[in-house]
Amino acid sequence: MLVSKSTVRITLIIVILIVFLYFFWMVRNALYPFIIGLFLTYLLNPAVCYLERKNIGRLWAIIIIYIILFSVVIIGGSKLLALFIKELQSFALDLPIMIENINKLLIQMQSQYQNSALPYYLRIAIDDNLLLLENEMQDFIGQVVNFIIKIISHSIGLAISPILAFYLLHDWYKIKSELLSFVPSSWRTELILFFRDADTVLGGIIRGQLLVACIIGVFVTIGLYFLQVKFAIIIGILAALFDVIPYFGPIIGASPAVMLAILESPWLTMKVILLFFIIQQIEGNIIHPKIIGENIGLHPLTVIFVVFVGGEVAGIIGMLLGVPVAAIGKVLIRHIVKVLL
């Protein structure tokens, strides 16, 4: 039986993609600086292109953007870091009292639960689910700790990310031309279209999600400050970091504030939950659609699925990268099918 050329091409491309994915998976620990560098490149490239349109050379445009960026980071970061350290010291002092209050609350809840008139089978089901929830929370906390340790251990590699981003920005067009030179001439037009679509999708996700996360972090910090919840800055930063995880991130980011409010009073707990609910509604209905819009191009069920898969494969990092990888994969598959069929 004869095999068509299109079938051979599709099979060959699938095999090549699998080999590349396997290779990148094997060296994934060495890729973090390059991933951060690519992230910075997509973040800064629009500003560099804007200065280019103002008749400023690309090299000087990059230098100007870097000077502005580092000035903002140094000036703003020093003030924010001072507040962050102050809250962190306060948190360290209050931690023993908080642990004691949590233990008292748990003992009180356990006493009320044991004295309740719940049927035996219902108690068994509740106990099993609580045990499962406890194990899941321990696993997640372990992943967060490992993620932080991994960031610290890769700090030297992360420090060179701005340098990698500098070279990527400077040689942006040259890199694209080099990649195109390895592609058969019959595919080049489609590859250019793929780069354009992928650039639109990935750039929209990265820049949009970062802006959304910053806005949410500010909203949370201001809201908790007015509600007089302790460690508003720390919780605001955590809320911003976790907000980049679709659907589940806001829930995770709200957890520390809710736990602190529970230790204070039921009324404060209700106000904190209401605050996060309002912020989530504003994000979901106004901020997110306005800033990111349709750039992702994925159905909500697909987003939830890839977040779960990413978390299973690579923990928190997998949850962060799942949506961008899936969005680029969708664009890639669409263009491959267009070329081969």
Automatic annotation (TrEMBL):
InterPro entries: AI-2E-like
Keywords: Cell membrane, Membrane, Transmembrane, Transmembrane helix, Transport
Subcellular location: Cell membrane
Topology within the bilayer: Multi-pass membrane protein
The keyword Cell membrane is annotated on this UniProt entry: yes
This protein's record includes keyword Transferase: no
GO cellular component: plasma membrane
Superkingdom in the source lineage: Bacteria
Pfam short name (any one): AI-2E_transport
GO biological process: transmembrane transport
Parts of the chain that traverse the membrane: 7-25, 31-51, 63-85, 147-169, 210-227, 233-253, 260-282, 302-328
Family: Belongs to the autoinducer-2 exporter (AI-2E) (TC 2.A.86) family.
Entry protein name: Predicted PurR-regulated permease PerM
Origin species: Pelosinus propionicus DSM 13327
